Amino acid sequence: MPLSEEKYERIMIEAMVEVGISQTMIFAFKRTGRIVTETNKHLLTAEELREWNDAVDEYHRRVESGDVI
């Protein structure tokens, strides 16, 4: 039986927290559904990379403004 999107996201986030992935990357994963690294970023389209970078920027803006994430 395939996992629902919600269950997949929950399992991924639990695993990321367990291995110490940064909150920035977790936030961007929640926004984009992907994890971007130096190793795989060349595989993304310009739009996909822009979405990732926008999510990272959003995380930093929200943290700097005192928004609880």
Describe this structure in words.
This protein has 69 residues and is mainly α. It has one domain (5-64). It is 64% helix and 0% strand. The protein is built from 3 helices and no strands. Helix 2 packs across helix 3 (46-64). It is globular. It starts with a helix and ends in a 5-residue tail after the last helix. The model has no long low-confidence stretch (mean pLDDT 94).
Task: Give the radius of gyration.
Answer: 13 Å
Output mean pLDDT. Answer: 94
What ranges have pLDDT less than 50 throughout 5 or more consecutive residues?
none
Number of domains: 1
Q: Give the N-to-C terminal Cα separation.
A: 32 Å
Form type: globular
Content of β-strand: under 5%
Sequence of secondary-structure elements: HHH
Helix content: 55-70%
What is the count of β-strands?
A: 0
Number of helices: 3
Q: Structural class, from secondary structure content?
A: mainly alpha
- Please describe the biggest sheet, giving its number of strands, its sense, and whether it closes into a barrel: none
Features:
69 residues, mainly alpha, 3 helices, 0% strand, globular
Quick structural overview:
With 69 residues, the chain is mainly α.
Topology:
Elements: H1 5-19, H2 23-32, H3 46-64
Helix pairs in contact: 2-3
